[in-house]
Inverse folding.
């Protein structure tokens, strides 16, 4: 019985990875709207068997990212803006739920880690602003800042102590992490350094988590995520929602 369970887990895990790879290719434009795909073709490109590809295709059809136009014909869907809005609303709600769980279950050590990460981000932000004013290169420091803030997001997820919920957030992302990072870097390189300093919600979130205020934590995260994903500010951050200034909330 143990052997059968392990084989099932391995298959499911491979199917999940295949699903995410195809979904990210669609959302990044690598697989464009109207492009025809086949199980065999995807399996060869991903170096997997047809079985996880078949499961990934079924999931993506249910999500509206793929359309089956014939018995053996599958094409990438042309998502309407309304469909993206619907997907974004789901992601916003799930992120808020993660914050609610984090307020209930985050440990003292995890919350201390969140404050420490924000201190590191503040130091990097000051350095970036100083070097930018001196017209010195900042790309490496910006990359370090985005990496630091991804640690913040990952730690908030860990505070929830609910891997199933965190997995659902990953599955419903409107933009992949790489896409979000690219979009933020484009704004920064265009001279919009304010993009790095507009996420003061981080300190407010940690305070809500320390107070075990699940409602406030959920509201803070949902307002920030909604602003980025539903177009209420120019961009949503490099990974999830990126760095903010110390006690600026």
């Amino acid at each position: 019985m143990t052997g059968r369970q392990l084989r099932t887990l391995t298959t499911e895990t491979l199917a999940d990875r295949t699903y995410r790879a195809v979904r990210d290719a669609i959302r990044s434009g690598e697989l464009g709207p109207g492009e025809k795909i086949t199980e065999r073709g995807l399996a060869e490109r991903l170096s997997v068997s047809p079985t996880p590809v078949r499961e990934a295709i079924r999931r993506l059809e249910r999500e509206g990212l793929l359309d089956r136009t014939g018995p053996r014909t599958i094409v990438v869907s042309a998502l309407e803006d309304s469909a993206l809005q619907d997907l974004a609303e789901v992601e916003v709600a799930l992120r808020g739920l993660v914050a609610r769980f984090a307020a209930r279950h985050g440990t003292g050590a995890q919350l201390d880690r969140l404050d420490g990460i924000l201190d590191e981000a503040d130091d990097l932000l000051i350095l970036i602003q100083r070097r930018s004013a001196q017209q010195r290169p900042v790309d490496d420091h910006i990359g370090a800042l985005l990496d630091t803030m991804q640690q913040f997001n990952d730690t908030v997820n860990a505070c929830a102590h609910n891997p199933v919920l965190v997995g659902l957030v990953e599955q419903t992302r409107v933009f992949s992490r790489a896409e979000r990072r690219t979009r933020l870097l484009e704004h920064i390189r265009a001279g919009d350094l304010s993009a790095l300093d507009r996420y003061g919600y981080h300190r407010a979130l940690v305070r809500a988590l320390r107070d075990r205020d699940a409602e406030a934590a959920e509201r803070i995260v949902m307002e920030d995520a909604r602003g980025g994903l539903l177009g209420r500010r120019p961009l949503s951050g490099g990974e999830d929602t990126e760095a903010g200034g110390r006690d600026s909330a």
Notes: Confidence is low (pLDDT under 50) at residues 5-11, 231-249. Residues 13 and 69 are 28 Å apart (CA to CA). The beta strands are 36-37, 66-70, 73-76.
